[in-house]
Amino acid sequence: MADYLRRIVDAELDELMRGVPALALEGPKGVGKTVSLRRKSSTVFSVDDPRQRALLEADPGRVERAAPPVLIDEWQRLPQLWDLVRRLVDERRVPGRFLLAGSAAPIEVPVHSGAGRIVSVRMRPLSLAERGMAPATVSLAQLLSGSRPALDAQSDVDLVSYANEIVSSGFPAIRVAPPRARRALLDGYLDRIAQHEIPDQGLPVRRPQVLMAWMRAYAAATAQDVSYNRILDAATPGDGEKPARSTTEQYRQVLNQLWILDPLPAWLPSRNPLNRLAQAPKHHLADPALAARLLGVGVDALLRGDSAGPPALRDGNLLGRLFESLVTLSVRVYAQSAEAQVYHLRTRNGDHEVDLIVARDDGRVLAIEVKLSPIVNDDDVKHLRWLSERVGDDLLDAIVITTGEHAYRRPDGIGVVPAACLGA
Question: Is the pLDDT of residue 160 over 70?
Answer without folding.
Answer: yes
